[in-house]
Design brief:
Number of helices: 9
Radius of gyration: 23 Å
Helix content: over 70%
Structural class: mainly alpha
Shape: elongated
Distance between the termini: 68 Å
Order of helices and strands: HHHHHHHHH
Amino acid sequence: MVVLLLVIMLGTTASQGAAHVRRESAALAEKSAEISRLYQEERRGLLRLSILLVGDRGVAEDLVQEAFAALYQRWDSLSDQATAAGYLRVCVINGARSLRRRWGVERRHVRAAEPDSVAGADATLLLAEEHRAALACVRRLPRRQQEVVILRYWSQMSEAEIAQALRISAGTVKSSASRALAAMARDLGVDNVQ
């Protein structure tokens, strides 16, 4: 009944309407398959990036899921589906920025009497002492410097890729990385951090 009504309203024949439904169904299946493939390829790297940016695995997983949900909604509007991995990375970075901004507001305005979240019992076994010290130094850096260091040295992105992902100039990436490494060297008490 509904298909007949649509056929009458659109002025198409039943066979044209059925062909349209088949094309839409095939496009939806192709979209779902492509996003599933991207999920398999990109999820782990995005999760690592997200954990480094927000410091909480549960929140990081939510950020990655939200990035994939946003990709699914905007898939048809992407000018080139080959850029989908970059779109996901930018979604995770922007989501982490929003969360950190929100957390900062909460810390300033709501002095909760709750203790800080405690890492799991196995967390100390996962990182060697020097890794924990370096990660603590990264977490003390300003937001942009943190993002640049994580993307450069953890995600192995080039300066141009970082500039594109963070929507800043390549020169800003270089200066942020330089300042971050100098601050980390001071904090760790070494001459040079690489």
